[in-house]
Amino acid sequence: MSKKILELRNVRHSYQMGQKTIDILKGVNFVLDQGEWCCIYGASGSGKTTLLNLIGGLEIPQSGKITVCGEVPAEMSGNQAAAFRASRIGFIFQSYHLLPELTVLENVTLAGTIAGQSFHAARKKAMQLLSTVGLEHRIAHRPMELSGGEQQRTAIARSLINDPALLLADEPTGNLDPDTGSEILKLFQSLRQADPSRTILMITHNLDIAALASRTADLKNGILSNR
Ligand SMILES: Nc1ncnc2c1ncn2[C@@H]1O[C@H](COP(=O)(O)OP(=O)(O)OP(=O)(O)O)[C@@H](O)[C@H]1O
Ligand SMILES: [Mg+2]
Questions:
Q1: 13 Cβ closer than 6 Å to some ligand 1 atom
Q2: Where do the domains of the chain lie, and which CATH numbers do they carry?
Q3: 20 to 30 A from 78, CA-CA: which of 47, 132, 178, 187?
Q4: 119-132 helix and 104-114 helix, angle to the nearest 10 degrees
Q5: pLDDT tens per residue, range 22-74
Q6: Does 50 sit in the ligand 1 pocket, CB within 6 Å?
Q7: Hey, is 128 helix, strand or coil?
């Protein structure tokens, strides 16, 4: 039987702008099983990033329930939830979000030590992952000294350091030229080939990526529906 990695039940979220409440998510129901790679489509402003931030715990939903690997981070204490997310969820952002003062190797290693790995183990794993993403010759560079594609590959290595059960990616090729975008696409493909149990939820406008995914879903009018 397939294992449920992610479940959303009636998730609602709105933003308050002065007197006005803007409803963004209006009752999202969604299940993702282990090994699925789902791409989410939706117009700009439809709430895709909001949805990913809620799943990744960067924001708390106003109502509804988000279950990750059978556990509900919103019901844990702050520290417990942070530790749970750090070890179970990998996050890839459109704008990379690397720490500018740290080197490539330090950026990736830190994500491992924050989740409880020893420095030695995290550093070794970081070296392996950076080599997988083709950056072994750039480990001493700081993010400013990298191209966009290299920064995104660093962010992908960082997202994998704790072997997350769930990988969330918010337009990972959105800021890249088409050639660099297809390099990242190939990287995701090879990650999946190396480990087909990897579960990925990705926002993308890139049709080449979406064509490789096992499923697509549309976010429209605050509701997420399978295609
Ligand atoms: N902190 C906030 N306060 C108020 N409104 C917000 C806030 N964050 C997002 N919004 C609004 O919520 C809506 C959804 O934003 P979101 O970033 O989730 O969209 P998106 O689907 O990711 O769009 P894009 O494709 O452009 O990245 C937008 O209309 C945005 O203006
Ligand atoms: Mg967005």
A1: no
A2: 4-226 (3.40.50.300)
A3: 47
A4: 130
A5: 999 999 999 999 999 999 999 999 999 999 999 998 888 999 999 999 999 99
A6: yes
A7: helix
